[in-house]
Amino acid sequence: MDTTSSAKLLKDVFVVCKEYLEEVCKVCGGMPLILINNMYLLKNDFNLKVLVEQLRNNPIDILKNNSEDVYNLLGKFLREFPRDIKRNLVRLSVFPSTFSAEDMLILFETRAEVETVKTKMVKDSLLQTTEEGKYSAHPLVQAFCRKESGSLAVGSEGDDTKKKFNDHYLERIKILSKLFITKHKACEAISTFRKEKANITEAFKNCFEDTTVKEEKLFAINVANGTEVLNFLVKVVSPPEECAQLYEKCCKISRDCDDKERLADSLNSLGFRRLLSCDAAHLRRD
Fold it and tell me: Does any domain span residue 67?
């Protein structure tokens, strides 16, 4: 259901405060069962801010902990799909938001395979088409496939796909950083980064927060601390604090790994980011 239909449903079933009606509709992804279930949570004094935050960042855990019957139904629904459909859902769930057919090429062997997969999944309503001609999976289906891929009997598809995604987009930030310092190419690099920022950010997040593989964490730190990448990120990532947070994570992981060399590099990168912020603030005062 779209946001308007979702809002109408909730107005008809509940007396819903307009202050949070649209936000709840948005994070529930238009799924009637989820909408109604979460409205019952709110009516029973579940904190609105916590509910919206969890539905945005960790919807599967909040379902499992507060609506186990709904969680079980969602899992049963997905587990009954043929294995090839489940594999493709798990693959595409690696994208944090919308994606294009071109983006899908990093996960599939050929353009013909991409066309076959997306056409079938759109036909079966497993992918939605955006006005910009991109595609998206339902947010709860995507979240389940990311979080519970091990229960879908697709082997190591989730981990393998995530590594392929991470490697591709960490390489992309290195390429864009080199392009940025190429004569007459800076604007092109910035424009491309803005289009791919969500995926690049997700690749760093996967390595820093969602994996236990030490080598992957350290590789991502090496990429972030590369001279060209650092120079690029501190100048194009907005807001600046987002860039600082990236390097704070590099520092924490290096410290946890007792890796003094990477910690020194990460502290230098963080200091460079902070120094630029101070310079910008000084110029604004002048």
Answer: no
Assigned domain for 75 exists: no
Q: What is the pLDDT along the chain (286 residues), one digit of tens a residue?
A: 677 777 676 666 665 556 666 777 777 777 777 777 877 787 788 887 788 888 888 888 888 888 888 888 889 989 999 999 999 999 999 999 899 999 999 999 999 999 999 999 999 989 999 888 999 998 888 989 998 998 999 999 999 999 999 999 999 999 999 999 998 999 999 999 999 999 999 999 999 988 788 999 999 999 999 999 999 999 999 888 999 999 999 999 999 999 999 999 999 999 999 887 654 443 344 4
Domain holding 11, by residue range, is: 3-57
Q: How many whole angstroms separate alpha carbon 249 and alpha carbon 236?
A: 19
Residue 65 lies in a domain: no
pTM of the model: 0.84
Residue 53 tokens read as 């935050």
Q: What is the DSSP string of 51-105?
A: HHHHHHH-HHHHHHHH-HHHHHHHHHHHHTS-HHHHHHHHHHTTSSS-B-HHHHT
